[in-house]
Amino acid sequence: MMKDGLKLKDPRHQVGGDFVVFPKKVFFSVREIKNKPDYIFVCTKTYHLMDVAAEISNAFSSPPVVGVFQNGLDNEEQVAKVLGAENILRCVINYAGTMHSDSEAEITFFNRPNYIGVMDTANVSAAREIANALTETGLETIYTEDIKKTEWEKAILNASLAPVSAVTGLTMKEVMDYPPLRLMVEKLLGEGIQVAGASGIGLSDHFFEHSLAYLEKGGYHKPSMLVDLEKGGKTEIDFLNGKIVEYGERLNIPVSYNRMITAITKGLEKKKAR
């Protein structure tokens, strides 16, 4: 990246077209950062989030404001246990891409906008500032006072299709075009919506239909969970379907489809690791 830049391909001009950016500095650990930054965006996979939070805690006497960008439920609450709720921003992104090489990415779709919220109202101005900065780059982002609702919406969407794609090896469109798998997506979606409602999350009356329409637009895109499995690594299943199972059991709501897909995905993780 330092030599050739980080290249973004944007064939459908979803964020303003192709560009190349050269990073000012590259660090291999938070510990290498000598001067405390105003903000840190944590954009790793969810299963690395707490490791990064621990590094940030150890690197600075008082934490900077940290933006949490991961998929999943309650990520910000976990990080807040280490860094303090007053230092955490939660972000929900609605774009996706694919890596062509270590320094070249292509954006595949962007269902605008992205969202950012706070755990502590003292950070509202910071969240609005970051939202404006991201919007100026082409990544339209808005501040929301109800980030938890947006977080659940995105998690339910991910939990409905990503693991089905991951365990079958099929793209989003291929899953949605095959009736037996589409039915499984619908069942996962229904369980997620029921659990969210019982948890006090006020989803819209048309969220089920809206979600199916959203998922149908995914095209021949591989969700990151499928890419993770193909690479032989971990997936974010524990933070998506696993969390829905956890909430469902706590609320005595049947979540058999989410429990099943979680177990199958974790079984594949073990197989790939071996």
Detailed description of the structure:
The protein has helices at 49-59, 75-83, 124-136, 147-168, 172-176, 179-198, 207-216, 224-230, 241-250, 256-273; strands spanning 6-9, 19-21, 39-42, 65-68, 88-92, 95-101, 104-110, 114-118, 141-143. By secondary structure, the chain is an alpha/beta fold. It has two domains: 6-145, NAD(P)-binding Rossmann-like Domain (Rossmann fold); 148-273, N-(1-d-carboxylethyl)-l-norvaline Dehydrogenase, domain 2 (Orthogonal Bundle). Strands 3-4-5-8-9 form a five-stranded mixed β-sheet, with helices on both faces. The protein has a four-stranded mixed β-sheet with strand order 2-1-7-6, with no helix packed on it. Helix 1 links the parallel strand 3 and strand 4 (65-68). Helix 1 (49-59) packs parallel to helix 2 and helix 6 crosses helix 9 (241-250). It starts with 5 loop residues before the first strand and ends with a helix. The mean pLDDT is 94.
